[in-house]
């Protein structure tokens, strides 16, 4: 039991939160490409992404795993994103720092989604059972390349109107 839920139900909750984080993150990213702040979507994205990492730490895992490492790094990057957006109000360099951190944590979520998909979906697992085979590497490489390109474009285009303090 985790927070009163069976492992199965807690896993479903964690996955649902993660999918909300990814979906809202995609909306926020495309908003950035159009120079739109989208404050409500941004709040959903940031909160859901924080909850994704926090709930990930609640699973009964023994020892340090790459997933825990990604969760720790994600929370550190999220702290920088929150500071850039809500404390520094995207002033000066904080604008592109926010874009870089927001896109990075969205990519982390997608990275983990790809890992989990290749582990849990039998058709994908058959293509890359050790996750060192070309289909897995191509999927991860394409995701990374896509996020790098979109992140650079967002950093160049995201110049929203000043945020009132």
State the share of residues found in helices, binned by percent. Answer: over 70%
Q: Number of helical segments?
A: 6
Overall morphology: globular
Largest sheet: none
**Computed structural class:** mainly alpha
How many structural units, i.e. domains? 1
How do the helices and strands follow one another from N- to C-terminus?
HHHHHH
The amount of beta strand, in percent, is under 5%
Q: What is the chains' assembly state?
A: single chain
The Cα radius of gyration reads 17 Å
Overall mean confidence score, pLDDT = 94
Number of strands: 0
pLDDT < 50 runs, ≥5 residues: none
Q: Roughly how many Å apart are the termini?
A: 43 Å
Task: Write a structural description.
The structure is a single chain. By secondary structure, this protein is mainly α. The chain has one domain. The chain contains six helices and no strands. It has helices spanning 7-33, 39-57, 66-87, 94-120, 122-127, 134-157. The longest helix is centred in the first third of the chain and has 27 residues, at 7-33. The mean pLDDT is 94.
Outline:
The chain is built from six helices and no strands. With 165 residues, it is mainly alpha-helical.
């Amino acid at each position: 039991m985790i927070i009163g839920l069976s492992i199965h139900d807690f896993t479903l909750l964690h996955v649902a939160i993660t999918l909300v984080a990814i979906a809202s993150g995609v909306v926020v990213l495309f908003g950035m490409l159009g120079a739109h702040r989208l404050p409500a979507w941004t709040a959903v994205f940031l909160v859901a992404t924080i909850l994704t990492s926090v709930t990930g730490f609640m699973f009964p895992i023994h020892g340090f795993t790459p997933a825990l490492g990604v969760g720790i790094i994600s929370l550190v990057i999220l702290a920088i994103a929150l500071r850039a957006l809500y404390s520094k109000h995207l002033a000066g360099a904080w604008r592109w720092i926010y874009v870089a951190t927001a896109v990075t944590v969205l990519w982390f979520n997608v990275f983990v989604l790809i890992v989990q998909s290749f582990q849990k979906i039998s058709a994908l697992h058959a293509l890359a059972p050790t996750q060192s085979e070309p289909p897995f590497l191509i999927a991860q490489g394409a995701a990374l390349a896509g996020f790098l390109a979109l992140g650079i474009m967002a950093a160049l285009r995201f110049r929203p109107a000043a945020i009132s303090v």
